[in-house]
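Appendix B. Chain record.
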Amino acid sequence: MKAKLESKFAKTTVLLTAAVISSFIPIFAFATLGSLVPLFRTNVSIRLTQLASQLNSVFNLLLYFYREHRFRNALRELLGMKKPRPKQSAVGDAQFIRKKDTFDSLELLIV
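Structure tokens predicted for this chain:
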């Protein structure tokens, strides 16, 4: 079980790293090419590089939504696609076991 969790963690880390690197490659490419070619110094190209870097947040959200079932369930609850699970209180209905006087069987009493 522990090895499976470590493997899943390693895969998620690799995917997150790839998403970060791929979203920042356009910034470095346009910065390098901008000193050589004036086309890459335009306002549109700068906006495109900013968009690519900001899309990293979307990639992270989608990656966690895909990889982690707790995150997926919480997001579904927030979007109203799934009913929230009822919360169980620790102080509510308690069960006690008591021996009957005449019989040797156990009975459950809900208080």
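Further analysis of this model is presented in Appendix C.
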